[in-house]
Structure prediction request, 354 residues.
Amino acid sequence: MTTTIGVIGASGQVGTEVCLYLKTYPEVQPVAVVRTSISGALLRRLGIEVRVGTFGTESESRELLRDCDLVVDFSAPAGEVNDIKAHYERHVRQAVACAPQGACYVFISTINALGMSPRFNRAKHYFLPHSIYAHTKRFAERLACRLGRQYRRAVYIFRLGHVHGALQRVSQETAELVRKDYQRFEYPDTPSYTIFCHSIAEGLINAAQGREAAGIYTLISNPAWSWREVLEHYADPQRPPKVELVPTRPAGLGRRLQAGVRGWVGGLAQGYKDTLRANILHRFPAFERRCQAWFYAEKARCEVQAYRDQLIYRPTGIHEGVIPGRRLPSLSDSRVTLKVKEDQVQAWLDGLQS
Prediction:
């Protein structure tokens, strides 16, 4: 029996690639729902059924989602907060209300709905969202869950981590990164929060076939990949990158205090060295020479360290700790199952160029 999955927002990077992974399953029929005919051109060439519409009316929405066993919404509106909320209010309501009876609905969110931001970087749920993106995603999540109860429909929220795949920018950037001449990559010794489009497609199929209960899920690879495994996935097997996983636990209070005091004293002395020499140090020549030697040694140490740091890659902006939330237990280990599906999707994409 064929499972039909309607993909709203299928023309985006993630939506397009998830459609392709769904197509690798012979018992699954992906249906791409896009706003304009031209935005569905690539998907048509790849053999995906495309339906064009804007969810402007109830009748249009029912026609777009006819025969779907599951509807997944990848749409990602931009603009002012009220405009984004209005988009979700219209699209989520139409999709939940107008899908066929018995169909599931999946809203695609991200782990940033937890409320994190560059400043509030710790991996946890924040009571107050620290970005407009988190605020609007939470709004859409609550709306989808409320409409699910109203229309008695199974609703899933998938909070995606860093999405990897053949069409994903983060994958291209990682592949370029491991080709550079860094001597070492230093990553935190915590699980990565990556998810491959292959696993997203698998999660959608499992939800459509009733293998997962409705609810909110943190969608990262299960079991999670380490940061070393992520880099090695994109590296040349003949030139594996040297990855050092650095513990994220902070040093003891005494050591942190000592390092802080040394840094403060050193910075103060460096900033006022001419003042100190003019008013105090010249009276003690031997001590002045020792201070000069310390200054020169410290300057040389900093320059050597700066040179070494150019050969070491340390990522910025990685969330500290383990991302909270319920996982999808039905996901297969993508270390084992990804390769075959990945090769199939890549062959289709290569066929477009030829």
